[in-house]
């Protein structure tokens, strides 16, 4: 019998997929506190995890562990190096949430460029004439720079092209053919394009090489009046630097779905200052929070666990494929 721990609530269809197998026992954690997880992890063969921190101390508690399956794609809450060393795959729900995140990115982009928050307030305040001052930036003909041309970045790029935007995509492993097919300019080094950029959108993973990738030096080179969007991970953006370029008027606004600390603590002065600004549009790490994505992620997270047990885990769903040591 394989024991599978589901560390946080997921869509019932994912749980069901595990339950119909008579060789699988499902353990549902009623909370994801480290002490609860430490009690439940010993002896499990698979773990389905959303955002709970899975560090080496916790993961070492099960010698039988065969797979850790993310309900999502970012793996910064899992000690991937520890699992790779033990020959344990980290599975991801590749593509299950990319439409949802791309759509939130676009919602934030349009909210900022069409000044929807201000327009909404103006109507409520019976200030109809505000429209002559609250002028929008049209997306058609504007320059979008996408850092990270992966599953999400590609969907943002396709939507931006449909709006008539000039799209530059940057990626350390750039698919030039796909960039060409979508009508985008592909660059390996995004720093070459900053002064021409009206909107910068971040779609890379958080890791040692991307922490504070979008720094003071990068933000201050963007075109005056530019907009910054981060629907990837908080740590990629230097939030203090963002606050500075918003306060000095160099940037016109920002859309943030993710934060260096989540939820943003009341005693963090930088995050508090960002949250208080009218030119910042916020969401509570809701990129994947669509009904379709929640179901798709749960099903894929469960299927990846079963595939691993059956020896057929797909390479594109294996996050640590390149570093996985033999067991
Ligand atoms: P992906 O792996 O398909 O794409 C990431 C791309 O970034 C890859 O093409 C990779 O080559 C590129 N990259 C990595 N490091 C880079 C660097 N230093 N410079 C330039 N390019 C670099 O991943 P995805 O599915 O598109 O997701 C991207 C990220 O979005 C995830 O890692 C996750 O952190 C975040 N995400 C957020 C939410 C949310 O709720 N807001 C939901 C899903 C994913």
Give an overview of the whole structure.
The two termini are 20 Å apart. This protein has 2 domains: 2-96 and 291-317, NAD(P)-binding Rossmann-like Domain (Rossmann fold, 3-Layer(aba) Sandwich); 98-282, Rossmann fold (3-Layer(aba) Sandwich), CATH 3.40.50.720. The radius of gyration is 21 Å and the shape is globular. It is built from 12 helices and 12 strands. The mean pLDDT is 98. By secondary structure, it is α/β, with parallel strands linked by helices. It has helices at 12-19, 34-40, 56-59, 80-85, 98-113, 116-124, 151-162, 176-181, 216-219, 239-247, 269-275, 291-309, and strands at residues 2-6, 24-28, 46-49, 67-70, 90-91, 143-147, 166-170, 185-187, 199-202, 226-230, 251-256, 280-282. Strand 10, helix 10 (239-247) and strand 11 (251-256) form a beta-alpha-beta unit. Nicotinamide-adenine-dinucleotide (NAD) binds at residues 72-74, 97-98, 101, 147-153, 170-173, 203-206, 209-210, 213, 231-233, 257-258, 285, 287-288.
- Name the CATH architecture of the largest domain: 3-Layer(aba) Sandwich
Please give the number of β-strands. 12
Radius of gyration: 21 Å
Low-confidence stretches: none
Q: What portion of residues is helical?
A: 25-40%
Along the chain, the helix and strand elements come as EHEHEHEHEHHEHEHEEHEHEHEH
CATH-level-4 superfamily name of the largest domain? NAD(P)-binding Rossmann-like Domain
């Amino acid at each position: 019998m394989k024991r599978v721990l589901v560390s946080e609530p997921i869509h019932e269809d994912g749980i069901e997929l595990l339950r119909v197998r008579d060789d699988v026992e499902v353990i549902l954690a009623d909370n994801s506190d480290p002490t609860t997880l430490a009690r439940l992890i010993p002896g499990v063969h698979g773990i389905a995890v959303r955002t709970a921190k899975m560090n080496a101390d916790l993961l070492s508690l099960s010698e039988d562990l065969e797979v850790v399956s993310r309900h999502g794609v970012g793996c910064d809450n899992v000690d991937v190096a520890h699992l790779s060393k033990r020959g344990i795959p980290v599975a991801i729900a590749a593509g299950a949430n990319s439409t949802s995140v791309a759509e939130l990115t676009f919602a934030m982009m349009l909210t900022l460029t069409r000044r929807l928050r201000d327009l909404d307030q103006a109507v409520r305040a019976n200030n109809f004439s505000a429209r002559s001052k609250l002028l929008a930036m049209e997306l058609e003909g504007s320059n979008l720079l996408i850092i990270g041309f992966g599953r999400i970045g590609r969907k943002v790029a396709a939507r931006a092209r449909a709006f008539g935007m000039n799209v530059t995509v940057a990626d350390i492993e750039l698919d030039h053919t796909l960039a060409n097919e979508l009508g985008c300019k592909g660059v390996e080094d995004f720093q070459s394009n900053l002064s021409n950029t009206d909107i910068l959108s971040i779609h890379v993973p958080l890791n040692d090489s991307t922490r504070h990738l979008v720094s003071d030096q990068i933000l201050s080179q963007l075109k005056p009046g530019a907009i910054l969007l981060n629907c990837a991970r908080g740590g990629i953006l230097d939030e203090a630097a963002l606050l500075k370029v918003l306060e000095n008027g160099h940037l016109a606004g920002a859309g943030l779905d993710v934060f260096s600390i989540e939820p943003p603590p009341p005693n963090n002065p930088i995050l508090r200052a960002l949250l208080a600004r009218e030119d910042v549009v916020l969401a509570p790490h809701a990129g994947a929070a669509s009904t379709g994505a929640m179901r798709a992620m749960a099903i894929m997270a469960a299927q990846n666990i079963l595939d691993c047990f059956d020896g057929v885990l797909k390479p594109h769903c294996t996050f640590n494929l390149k570093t996985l040591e033999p067991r």
